[in-house]
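USER:
Make up one protein:

ASSISTANT:
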Amino acid sequence: MAPEDETPASGGGGDPCGANPCAASSFSCSDLKQKLVFDPKATLHYKVGDGVLHGCLEVENDGWIGFGVSVPGATSGGFMNGADAIIGVPGDDKPVQKYDLTFSPALMPDAQQTLEDVDLVQDGDMMIMKFTKMLVEDGENSILEVGLNNFIHARGGSTLLAYHGFTSKFIVPKDFSEDPACGADPCGAGCGGADACGAGCGPGCGSGRRTECGGSTNIDTYDAMYHHYTMMIPQAPGAPGDATPITHDVVGIMTNGVLLDSHSQTWAYDMCNGHSDKKDQYHYHIPPICYLKSMGVPTPASDRWWINDAGTEVRPYSKMSAQFPKTGLSPVVGFARDGFPIYALYGPDGQMVRSATYEGDLDECNGKGEGSDYAYYITAEPPFVPTCLRGTVGNFAFATSDKKCPGSGITNSISGVTTVAPVPAPATPDTTPADPTDDGRTVFTPSDDDDQSAAFAKVPLLSALISAALAAVVFFI
């Protein structure tokens, strides 16, 4: 149930674009084309218009589920305390009601129980809560049609509405004005009926991927898009504990707002050693040369350090670290989801750090240090980034947009340090025979002199992206 594999609900019956297709007095969950993803297990399908929010919260859970509105604004809010919530409790006489979270969940008075179209059903592994809520109500946090909202989600493991644990809270900022206008999307996003382009639109409807529908946007599978990222990070991680595997997932966020990911190597990178995935999220999982260089970290002369000298295949892993200077210094370049800092390539003594795989002094999570001095490292050899975390793992959530990142890169100001996207170098001509993959990319044969080497893919430069995030909100709690 990964976010990139989710398909927006298909259209319902009736006239899809009648007199007021964006706001009906009652609705079906299948009418809702827009979505807000809290995590792979929780998605809000929604429609906003005429002063109300129609929502269907789908959560992989069999206990209570909740959707909340915290204090709106770009820099405030985002936490449970002070939020207003809609909570569905299986088995209750009134299973979907409004709660005040100022101190602990307290049922709002009857006069404030103004929800309409409420329902709570269990459909297989999914709990689905349906509701219609007015955007502005006296004594409650307003939902903004224009401006940044802080939406929250929580869930519990039983029907008892109680403490849900740190790892069951999720926060996502959202500005509804960034959504396509009703009727403006040729796939019918926001209209309650069948897709205007027919079945050929498929999962692209409402998500900006309209290449087959004759729309104005042209977004391909691996194009980087602007996102809102929200990451909950412990402010005082304490001493490192047992390792929690984090594979094929986000392990942290760099100080420039770009995600650090632990998924397996594809060896298809741009000149800054980053790339985008099927969620349209630009990220790193090898040393990001452009950004490290801008932060004063020594880097190889070539951004193609991971390719052999002939330019035909991936360099043997055992020879990758030799492409970097042996000594240097690194500032904090990111934070892991458990709150520990991330450094790149060089330790406090100025020497290059080596991973445990290559007889270095890093542990199995690519980290080292005692107590509060513990930190993770990006290395020039596998695993390159942490693949497990030794603290309490904070939550990560994201909200995508329909805005494509510019191919020329982004200039980003970080704590007074300005980093400018470098001019992309021309692509090296491809003269090596290769087999095409099913997605049109070209994969080369692995090196024969190192059984840990791998094939890489020649792709057009994604861009010299210094940050692919529209906003990266990191909460230290």
